[in-house]
Amino acid sequence: MIHHTMVYQPCVLPPPHTPLPHTPRRNGKPTSLGCFNTEEDAARAYDMMMVWGQLHQAHKGKGTVVTNFDPSEYDRHLGMLQNMSQDQLLEHLRSQGRSQAAAQRGGGGRKRGRAELE
Question: Which residue, 30, 67, 64, is CA-closest to 47?
Fold first, then answer.
């Protein structure tokens, strides 16, 4: 039996024909921040990337960074974000999503084979 679960992935949907400057990017291309169990967790992952970008001036000249929650909620993470590279933050956010998925599966973290899913 296959069990389907709902996961949330942080993303930005710009208005038609309007580029959005705050899309998380890596090497100039849009990038995934991972998959999360709740919309709130996905929104907070997006916010962390936006705050990181503001700290590292990745959004220089692109206006004010828009977050889902009050940016002051991330003040306690500023030291960590200041000392992380973008790749380190991406790995951190993605690992949070993976650990949520493992906890939802029962914490084993073991991938199931095809025969176990049927």
Answer: 67
